[in-house]
Amino acid sequence: MSDIDERPHAPTDPRLVRAGQDGSSAADPAEWTCPVPLADSAAVLMGHGGGGAMSAELVEQLFLPAFRSRDGETPVELADAAVLELCGSRIAFTTDSFVVRPLFFPGGSIGDLAVNGTVNDLAMVGARPWCLSTAFILEEGTDLAELRRVADALGTAARAAGVRLVTGDTKVVDAGHGDGIYVNTTGLGLVPDGVDYRPGRAGPGDVVIVSGEIGAHGVAVLSCREGLEFDTAVRSDTRPLHGLVAAMGRAGGDIHALRDPTRGGLAATLNEIARDASVGVDVRERDIPIAGPVADACSILGLDPFAIANEGVLVAMVAAEDADRVLDAMHAHPDGRDAAPIGEVTANNPGVVAARTGLGGERVIDLPTGTELPRIC
Amino acid sequence: MSDIDERPHAPTDPRLVRAGQDGSSAADPAEWTCPVPLADSAAVLMGHGGGGAMSAELVEQLFLPAFRSRDGETPVELADAAVLELCGSRIAFTTDSFVVRPLFFPGGSIGDLAVNGTVNDLAMVGARPWCLSTAFILEEGTDLAELRRVADALGTAARAAGVRLVTGDTKVVDAGHGDGIYVNTTGLGLVPDGVDYRPGRAGPGDVVIVSGEIGAHGVAVLSCREGLEFDTAVRSDTRPLHGLVAAMGRAGGDIHALRDPTRGGLAATLNEIARDASVGVDVRERDIPIAGPVADACSILGLDPFAIANEGVLVAMVAAEDADRVLDAMHAHPDGRDAAPIGEVTANNPGVVAARTGLGGERVIDLPTGTELPRIC
Q1: Mean pLDDT over residues A161-183, rounded?
Q2: What span, in angstroms and rounded, lies between the C-alpha atoms of A3 and A22?
Q3: How many helices (H) and strands (E) does chain B have?
Q4: What's the pLDDT score for residue B33?
Q5: Strands (E), A75-224
Q6: Quick one: average pLDDT of A321-346?
Q7: CA-CA distance, A277 to A300, in Å (whole number)?
Q8: Which of A11, B34, B189, B304 could form a disulfide with B92 if both were Cys (CB 3.0 to 4.6 A apart)?
Q9: What is the CATH T-level fold of the domain A199-364, as seen in this structure?
Q10: Tell me, what is an example of a GO biological process annotation in this record (chains A, B) (predicted)?
Q11: Interface test with A, best of B62, B165, B263 (most A CBs within 10 A)
């Protein structure tokens, strides 16, 4: 991994331009960062949607107490999907809204994300995706041709992933009260017998595996949104991961936990697993796969690739004795060719994620607070 | 039912005031109507969200072709909920986004609608509601205290309806690209053995029953939004209807079809059933229950109560020989006390809904085109 500054700095690298009318105006990193969070803020901040500490605070302090069940439980599932039992079957159930801007970006669109994001949340509990609902909130005045392109992309992604679109809803809000197209997908999947992937099952000794190069989605959307151009175009990694997960399962090893590091990136995902399983996580920065252009872009823009959203990568916690066979199965699958072991789960420092840097030092990887890149999915 | 003009007219009735600073400025009905639809419109219009002909056109011409399955089917369910088979069980699955403005109105809030609307879509296929997902799209700057009130209302409504909130999502959009709080709920329910309520099962001879007084929700939201005041306050009828549906089922009669006339009102619902079952529907205007203050408000505002959204009323098509026992069961239930037979299904004029007026004439009730009241749910 490249040497990354931890604070945004002005992009002065000549490879970086903003594609304005004259191609010369500088990008302003201040536009990409979230204000410092206020625990006592009286209003919703962008960071509340970032998938980090502020998001967690909103869920834990506002939604969970309000959503307790009749018997006082707060049964809202904090994993990627809830798993419900019905007549001996286990049904995975998960919801996501997509508000990415722009609607189309290198490598994908809001339609792809709406399918793959929800399919992947199902896959992370080991479920085979079954069907999706789609719910659109359209802004008055949105170009119907653009809506058609989004719907076509969504349908194409669903066919590619093998999920059926079985029910839907459309609402329209007056101009100025939306942003073209928002879409929610809610997914149902079936969890095969014997599969039990949960963050809480991660345990000391587990090998931490990442399935591919990180950071591509965030950099692709940001560079498109801001009109930045790099020597090498970066494309979103959006893709469905249930095929890879099934291949990993067939390898026969004991997979304890799976997560896809979307909002908040690898940093948020590893911290959440460390918290949920009360374990430490030690990773080696130099072993984390990242494409050169993505590393360069992060370096230029002052972004931490650990905190950037991915849409086609998973993190697995696998029993040490089974790690090699699971890795072999991943390498044999087209969506896991770049899979790599990046660290271990430890009993030391429960709840803490630590990274050994390229220079041999060690640093703590914190749960991101707000969001560096709002509306990334 | 009151004698209702079919076109909006200026509200000159002295009972109607706009509660402005001086309480004197007149309401402008033009604000409540949708522009005439253009089949070749290049952009999304408010009417595309109205639940009438424009909504149907968008679904049939844009979404269904895009969402066809791998084998070319267009399996998107046009009933209130899709019904899926799993290991001998039938699972109902439905989604709805809620964008009502204002968030709180007499008799309810967006939190109540988000639960009851989805619970009722499950109930209309005869399902017992099981659990819901919740997905919020929040606008940056939204008052957290208001969000808490909405979450509390949603949780309270879920406990009242006996459904669990099991998984969720929160996104934040930048100020100016939302409208405070949008919420999607997606619901799962279980359809009991032997239950088969589908619009297509309505047949000639069926008695058309409405479970209560119509029009209250639309008038309540509109009067709150526009600051109108009437002699008697009108409250939304939002409520979960699965208890009433279960009571109707226990009566043992052959219920063919159930629908809740939300967006597009009774007019849209009856037209959809007439179309789906290729039958005619004849109703008697004077038998349709409507509260005096709602009828008065509609008369003053030039609104057609047939086309106004309801949130706590259902329409049932019941075999003639069983209508009395189903009606008795409805009258014995708190949510069906005002139930009334309002007409019959006929073999004449398939696809046409006709109303016998109070004066003995007959008129066709068309599928509403766009929407008289945008953002009503």
Answers
A1: 95
A2: 32
A3: 9, 16
A4: 41
A5: 82-86, 89-98, 104-105, 108-109, 128-139, 164-173, 181-191, 207-210
A6: 98
A7: 35
A8: B189
A9: Phosphoribosyl-aminoimidazole Synthetase; Chain A, domain 2 (3.90.650)
A10: protein maturation
A11: B165
Q: Which residues of A touch B134 (CB under 8 A)?
A: 63, 67, 95
A contact test, residue of B61, B95, B185 with most A CBs within 10 A: B95
Residue with tokens 């290729």: B278
Strands (E) across chain A are located at: 17-18, 82-86, 89-98, 104-105, 108-109, 128-139, 164-173, 181-191, 207-210, 228-229, 255-259, 280-284, 315-318, 340-346, 353-356, 362-364
Task: Judge whether A166 is closer than 8 Å to chain B, CB to CB.
Answer: yes
- Give the Cβ contact number of residue B73 at 10 Å: 10
Distances (CA, A) of B333 to B115, B212, B289: 21, 11, 17
Mark yes or no for CB contact A86/B91 under 8 Å: yes
pLDDT in tens, A284-293: 999 999 999 9
Neighbours of A132 (CB within 10 A): 31
Please, what sign has the CA dihedral across residues A256, A161, B78, B88? negative
What integer pLDDT is reported at residue B250 of this predicted model? 97
CB–CB of B62 and A144 under 8 A? Answer: yes
Tokens of A254: 């004991």
* pLDDT, chain B, mean: 88
Please provide the distance, in angstroms rounded to a whole number, between the alpha carbons at the two ends of chain A.
24
Task: Name the minimum distance, in Å, from the CA of A294 to any CA of chain B.
Answer: 25
Regions in chain B scoring below 70 on pLDDT:
1-40, 73-78, 231
Mean local confidence (pLDDT), A305-324 = 97
> Among A90-94, A155-159, A213-217, A229-233, which is the least confidently predicted range?
A229-233
Q: What is the pLDDT of residues B47-100, one digit of tens each?
A: 999 999 999 999 999 999 999 887 776 554 467 899 999 988 999 999 999 999
Put simply, the answer to whether B67 touches A182 (Cβ < 8 Å) is no
Contacts of A227 by beta carbon, 8 Å cutoff, 6+ apart: A18, A19, A20
CA A212 vs. chain centroid, Å, equals 13
ipTM: 0.89
Question: What confidence score (pLDDT) does residue B75 get?
Answer: 52
**What are the backbone dihedrals phi and psi of residue A375, each rounded to the nearest 5 degrees, phi first?**
50, 50
Which CATH homologous superfamily contains domain A80-191? PurM-like, N-terminal domain (3.30.1330.10)
Q: Does the beta-carbon distance from A137 to B164 stay under 8 Å?
A: no
Q: Which of A73, A95, A99, A109 to mutate to test the interface with B (most CBs of B within 10 A)?
A: A95
Beta bridge mates, A43? B143
Is the Cβ pair B66, A155 closer than 8 Å? yes
A51 and chain B: CB distance < 8 Å anywhere? no
Out of A87, A141, A167, name the one closest to residue B93 (CB). Answer: A167
Nearest residue of A to residue B166, measured between CA atoms: A76
Q: Which amino acid type is present at position A209?
A: I
pLDDT at B124: 97
Of B97, B134, B144, the CB nearest to A135: B97
pLDDT, tens digit, 9 for 90 and up, residues A179-217: 999 999 999 999 999 999 999 999 999 999 999 999 999
**Portion 55-114 of A in contact with B at CB < 8 A:** 55, 58-59, 62-63, 66-70, 75-77, 81-82, 84, 86-89, 91, 93-99
What percent of chain B is helix, strand and coil (3-state, nearest 5)?
30, 25, 45
Q: Write down the H helix ranges in chain B.
A: 53-58, 64-66, 110-123, 144-161, 216-226, 242-250, 265-277, 292-301, 323-331
Query: What's the topology of domain B77-191?
Result: 60s Ribosomal Protein L30; Chain: A; (3.30.1330)
Q: List chain A residues with CB under 8 Å of B95.
A: 133-135, 167-169, 184, 186
